[in-house]
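Write out the 3D structure for:
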Amino acid sequence: MDDQTIIDLYWQREEAAITETKAKYGRRCYAIAYNILHDRSDAEECENDTYLGAWRSMPPHKPTALSAFLGAITRQLSLDKWREKNAQKRGGELTISLNELEECIPDDKSIDDAITAMSLGKTISAFLRTLPEVERCVFLRRYWYFDSVGAICARYGFGQSKVKMMLHRTREKLLTYLEKEGIFV
């Protein structure tokens, strides 16, 4: 079923919308949640909560890209669950990924505060559009989906040193871009 038909089902308040969403995007939502939480049961819970979030959001929202819409809901739910579970302790790929990004977002605020800033998000999106496709995909796999370096290596057939260097150089480019755009001086 195509995305527009699924969105129409949500707008018509048809329960089939959830069934169709799960069939088409369930594995993707689960993968996003699992990469953040590293717990099967929590990932399944966030996947299911994503369908509820979509149900509650449509209407009034009518997403133009259903996969991105669902991905954003899953990611936010998973990050919230991760914060809740790790309020006292820190660790794992999520922390490593966020710490790497803090290098190019020098601000008194936490990385969470900086990422939620609307202008920063738009500027980072514009920056990503300037990158070659492979570099952009590697960057997104690491910092949006929170894939480990090893998982990125396996996906693209690169060695660890290549992926680490690519990520390092992309973060440097991002910092330069943010400075040039006047986000950070």
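The radius of gyration is 17 Å.
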